[in-house]
Write a structure and sequence with these properties.
This protein has 224 residues and is mainly alpha-helical. It folds into two domains: 58 residues, Homeodomain-like (Arc Repressor Mutant, subunit A), CATH 1.10.10; 145 residues, Tetracycline Repressor, domain 2 (Orthogonal Bundle), CATH 1.10.357. Helices cover 66% and strands 0% of the residues. It is built from twelve helices and no strands. It is elongated. It starts with 10 loop residues before the first helix and ends in a 13-residue tail after the last helix. The relative contact order is 0.10.
């Protein structure tokens, strides 16, 4: 397929280099290049020929690392969770429940904005996971999602049990936090002036301050 006829330009046409030339790991180069291409053109519309053009690898090399295009999509999903796990693992232990939730929001935002193309593909294709991935791969992704959602829910439950948060609908609060963080990769691209930490604090302040009990509400600053 000639790239000049595509409505969706290949990544190398915009960044001016062949992706594999700036990566030491060819497998990672394929995954990163596919994330850019899937985000821009869509998973279904992207062909192996497109991936070959974008990464500078022939189809044989692509098949060597990934026997099917769906395996590349699965790798993008896994890379998304790996980024999240690395940020979550850096959270210190012993934090008060509300501080722990704030730290997790920071980890979510930082991981989202560190790999915006991967995250974009994740949510663009999310509703079709069971259709595009095989059963074993889909089960892995759903298990990862359930584990992290349960982790956030446990933190909120601890905050409620400790009298830090009001008696809230835990599932609803967690869902709202996740939805807000998940959308950050879209609008953050339009406002480069906001650092990930500032975005995380804004999201955390909105949700945490809204459910703190009176005992844990900060008093208003003194005025002259």
């Amino acid at each position: 397929m000639g790239t000049a006829q595509r409505d969706c330009p290949l990544p190398t046409q915009q960044i001016g280099v062949t992706i594999v030339n700036i990566a030491t790991d060819k497998r990672s180069a394929i995954v990163d290049g596919a994330a850019v291409l899937f985000r821009r053109c869509g998973y279904q519309a992207t062909t192996l020929a497109d991936l070959s053009d974008a990464t500078g690898m022939n189809k044989g090399s692509l098949f060597y690392f990934f026997p099917a295009k769906s395996d590349i999509l699965f790798a993008i999903y896994l890379a998304t969770f790996e980024a999240l796990d690395s940020h979550v693992d850096a959270i210190p232990g012993g934090l008060r429940a509300d501080e722990n939730l704030r730290a997790h929001i920071h980890a979510m935002v930082s991981s989202t904005l560190s790999r915006p193309d991967h995250v974009a593909v994740y949510f663009q294709e999310h509703q079709w996971i069971e259709r595009t991935l095989n059963a074993e791969q889909a089960a892995v992704i759903r298990s990862q999602e359930e584990f992290f959602t349960a982790r956030l829910g446990s933190i909120v439950e601890d905050a409620v049990a400790g009298g830090i948060f009001r008696d809230v609908n835990v599932k609803l609060l967690v869902t709202q936090i996740q939805a807000t963080v998940q959308s950050s990769y879209r609008w953050h691209l339009k406002d480069k002036g906001l650092a990930p930490s500032a975005i995380a604090d804004a999201i955390a302040d909105t949700f945490i301050h809204g459910v703190l009990t009176a005992k844990f509400q900060q008093p208003p600053p003194l005025t002259n």
